[in-house]
Amino acid sequence: MSTYDASFRIWRGDAEGGELRDFTVEVNDGEVVLDIVHRLQATQTPDLAVRWNCKAGKCGSCSAEINGRPRLMCMTRMSTFERSETITVTPLRAFPVVRDLVTDVSFNYAKAREVPAFVPPRGVAPGAYRMQQVDVDRSQEFRKCIECFLCQDTCHVVRDHEENKTAFAGPRFLMRVAELDMHPLDAAEEAGLDRKRTAQEEHGLGYCNITKCCTEVCPEGIKITDNALIPLKERAVDRKYDPLVWLGSKIRRRADT
Amino acid sequence: MAQVDRQQWDVVVVGAGGAGLRAAIEARERGKRTAVICKSLFGKAHTVMAEGGIAASMGNVNEGDNWQVHFRDTMRGGKFLNQWRMAELHAKEAPDRVWELETWGALFDRTPDGRISQRNFGGHEYPRLAHVGDRTGLELIRTLQQKIVQLQQEDFKEYGDHEARLKVFQECTVTRVLKDGEPGAAGAPPGRRPGGRVSGVFCYERESGRFFVLEAPAVVLATGGIGKSFKTTSNSWEYTGDGHALALLAGAPLLNMEFVQFHPTGMVWPPSVKGILVTESVRGDGGVLRNSEGKRFMFDYVPDVFKEKYAESEEEGDRWYEDPDHNRRPPELLPRDEVARAINSEVKAGRGSPHGGVFLDVSTRMPAERIRRRLPSMYHQFKELADVDITAEPMEVGPTCHYVMGGIAVDSDTAATVGVPGLFAAGEVAGGMHGSNRLGGNSLSDLLVFGRRAGLHAAAYADGLAGAPPAVSQAEIDAAAEEALAPFHAAEGAENPYTLHQELQTTMNDLVGIIRREGEMAEALEKLAGLRARAARAGVEGHRQFNPGWHLALDLRNMLLVSECVARAALERTESRGGHTREDCPAMERGWRPVNLLCRPVEPAPGDPAADRIVLERTRTEPVRPDLLALFEKEELVKYLAEEELYE
Amino acid sequence: MATGTEPPRQLTGVHDASRAAIADRHLRTDRWWLAPAVTAAGLLAFIVYSTWRAFANADYYAAPYVSPFYSPCLAENCQEMRGGPNLDLFGSWWGLSPALLILVFPLGFRLTCYYYRKAYYRGFWASPPACAVAEPHAKYTGETRFPLILQNMHRYFFYAALPVAGILTYDTVLTLRNDRYEWGHMGLGTLLFLVNIALIWAYTLSCHSCRHIMGGRLRHFSKHPVRYRMWGWISRLNTRHMQLAWASLISVALCDFYVYLLASGAFNDPRFF
């Protein structure tokens, strides 16, 4: 068991303003950044605001930026830093700050509401749903999402352009569209909802320039770009930019593909 | 006089975990305007931590399963102390609740014929747990969350407002359940007037520190457990026993609070992650427990009541994974209380692992690829937090405080609390369902079954009061506001809430932990009195905006109340049963079987903070219905039921 | 770190008034600029090299090897390649280098490729330069408008890339001759061409559009087991799309350079048999 003192710079402030403040704080074996923030609360700054819940990388609450990189504080081990290094912790920089490390993430909840929910198939009673594992695999990967919103934070479309927030759902919710479009029993199409088309026209899929930062930061290791966003772009192409597919679908309207 | 925002709702649900959200969905679908209030962000509730699965006897993997078998397993797991009617309803309704999730978009793992796959778990006779890898809780919470969003989208179409009939107040905390009744003297503690009905809740918003009141005739408590009163726990910061305390303060009693489940397998190293859960699925999927001598010690710890049900040799246990019909299950899959005690004994006997646990090894049973697919978050958790590759080496595990079986005493069918009209409780905060020990997987199904029932009956109750809702008095609001602001007015020499919390956790962990002794529990009660006195002087720095120190100071009241219940009830029950193990009374006593211990608040509340707050009351359980008793063999019942019950 | 010498605060992005007041465009301490810099340098080097070679209109054939930049050779002014990819579709009016006629297709394929898009958006446009590093542009509309909306054409270039890869395969088969056009021989160049064509195919088939067309667009894999299996293979290749993009880019340039060395007489092809 070894213990040392680490240098931390933590942003403190609120919507009115704030600054990076320096702290020296004890670090023990095996600890993560969130442990250090808790130690600061208990010993130096009792009112340091921070969000956290499970401390096991399962709830996605303790999102912050550590040395400029969006991360979960509970999954960032101190052993990944040099002992002499100063570790900078700031709130997520794509969202309005509330206080200290806490930001207003309501953007994400508003976007969640814009994605039409799963449409249950008509005439299939509860308990009568039959789906093959290979057919649910893809959507299951996306449902691993813990909604830490790190992908939403790092995505330059909204991070660097506040004005795009109205038009762009962000990786998390484009992935939700993909999840539903790949759900083997989603009956949106029968109900007159074309998720492939709305991905482009209503959720701003075209803003994505597939630079993969969402995939880079995902703590669940979901391949957001390769498995959700690009396939969704291809599906939008099917609908909007591919006359061959359009013609084919006109000629033989196959009920199931 | 505190000027606070007041809003009118039909049903208020406190807590947005599985039970709370299910209750809210039900109340809203019954046409009630429903508000959900939760301490964290929407979708972050502790339910996301649940890993293994949802127990429901759908019989998809083994057709022999049905509700009767599930009921039997649940009663055995709870050592027959379960509120049997709850166990019955739970076993009967769980499959419907799971299937319903699919119609809301949930994607469970599948069997080859396309149905919901089910896995083995401790104490369940058949593979019964619907699951999604080892992240079932996340799937559950996300599905409920998305169902709520869907209802809000409907309301948006109809009213132009997403929150017209269903609103989530996230990052808000309830500090008092408000009641009507005879007006008390100004400044009297709120919620204490006898005979009152629920009239609303008093809350603060964490972000701004602003107070507000939600007026509603029906309130559902679904706040989860109490684990944050213990040092080593798998629970998150939210688990401060809020609902338990709110119910007590409103005059509703708690039931059998001595039963606290220590999950046998929590991480033990590194220290900062000590207590984090290692899912029981590891054992369900073939993980074995070994001590430092390499011995599978669980074979030495099969208690008499379970002797016929578990394998006697490693060979038989191993065969069971392939051929469960002709072999008995390995003892690693005993109910959690048995496994936790066994691990504790091994460590005490000096046969523990280097960091004070035992070894849990799944790497020898399955190829690495399969482990990563079936236990992805365990693989990830150990890799990231402990540098352990579970596909190649054993994990070190030890018991961790996980769940409280005790809770608010409720009516089995309606989830209504005892003695406070309009107050309902569901999920972990409610007591009775699991008896003295909960089986893995029964928690998620409990949330759904009783969450729905609580929502249903809260809506019906609110219907009955439509037009004449109980009034909220200004005096009550003022008293609640004063209480909540007290930490800002602490005098010189104020106590640090973080220090108090740490001392409380140490006290409960060391003195009322997994193995209990009379002297230690008495000592704990003394220490708790001291902590109460100091907590009354807890003070905080800064202002009301998102101030975690302040939030903790307010939560301390709840943790101290609940801890006193646990310690007092544990001292009273002179036997060992399920989640209550006493070194000085090691045997399960049949005489205690029909005894419930109710914790009631001392009325009126004493002025001295160090004085006792809780009185105990012994009540007799309702006799088990004969047709349910008939599901068991006579020889088995003899081991559990008290002498006089057998002749009834 | 706040030094007081930063440019005045932009009003958007991370410097929006609602966000945490931090002056720096980023707080990353790692060498985040390395990856985009290397990418940009690599792409630039290829562009310079390929422009020179494409316009050179010389030294692209040394029997039995034809440079992949000039294959198929579509104009009359092409050098005669015996049994080789002469396909005079354009006739005599075309006076420029014949490479320009065919390079449009692989260029378009790579230009609209999901990986290369990432690479040049980051490396050349700095949009964004790296994750969580603020980009220098005031406005951003992504691929919603002309011309970038044309990126949606990627699958057509994929279709076009298939015959091109087929012809390069044919060229590779031709390298199993010696310089007197006798079959059954191999030289160092043959080896290079074999590696190159394997990489070209791997890159082409690992394309995201290909993955979608082969199976990604299906809703029920279980009802299309053959396409599901193909989708599975392509998905596995697809995870290496970036590596394949670079490897095939380098190999194609190497093949061309090798032919240049032979054709210009700077080097003699070592023959194995």
Automatic annotation (TrEMBL), chain A:
GO terms under cellular component: plasma membrane
Any Pfam family hit: Fer4_8
GO biological-process terms attached to the record: respiratory electron transport chain; tricarboxylic acid cycle
Keyword match Oxidoreductase: yes
Keyword 4Fe-4S listed: yes
2Fe-2S ferredoxin-type domain segment(s): 6-93
Cofactor: [3Fe-4S] cluster; [4Fe-4S] cluster; [2Fe-2S] cluster
Entries under SUPFAM superfamilies matching the protein: 2Fe-2S ferredoxin-like, alpha-helical ferredoxin
Keywords: 2Fe-2S, 4Fe-4S, Iron, Iron-sulfur, Metal-binding, Oxidoreductase
Gene3D superfamilies: 3.10.20.30, Alpha-helical ferredoxin
Involved pathway(s): Carbohydrate metabolism; tricarboxylic acid cycle
A GO MF term: electron transfer activity
Family to which the UniProt record says this protein belongs: Belongs to the succinate dehydrogenase/fumarate reductase iron-sulfur protein family.
PANTHER family in UniProt: SUCCINATE DEHYDROGENASE [UBIQUINONE] IRON-SULFUR SUBUNIT, MITOCHONDRIAL (PTHR11921:SF29), SUCCINATE DEHYDROGENASE IRON-SULFUR PROTEIN (PTHR11921)
Protein name: Fumarate reductase
TrEMBL record, chain B:
Domain Fumarate reductase/succinate dehydrogenase flavoprotein-like C-terminal: from-to ranges: 501-587
EC number(s) from the headed UniProt entry: 1.3.5.1
Active-site residue list: 336 (proton acceptor)
Keyword set, alphabetical order: FAD, Flavoprotein, Oxidoreductase
Chain ranges of the FAD-dependent oxidoreductase 2 FAD-binding domain: 10-444
Domain of life: Bacteria
Protein name: Succinate dehydrogenase
Organism of origin: Streptomyces roseus
Name of the gene this protein is made from: sdhA
Automatic annotation (TrEMBL), chain C:
Transmembrane recorded as keyword: yes
Keywords: Membrane, Transmembrane, Transmembrane helix
Taxonomy, superkingdom: Bacteria
Record-annotated membrane-spanning stretches: 32-52, 93-116, 156-177, 183-204, 244-263
Protein name, as recorded: Membrane protein
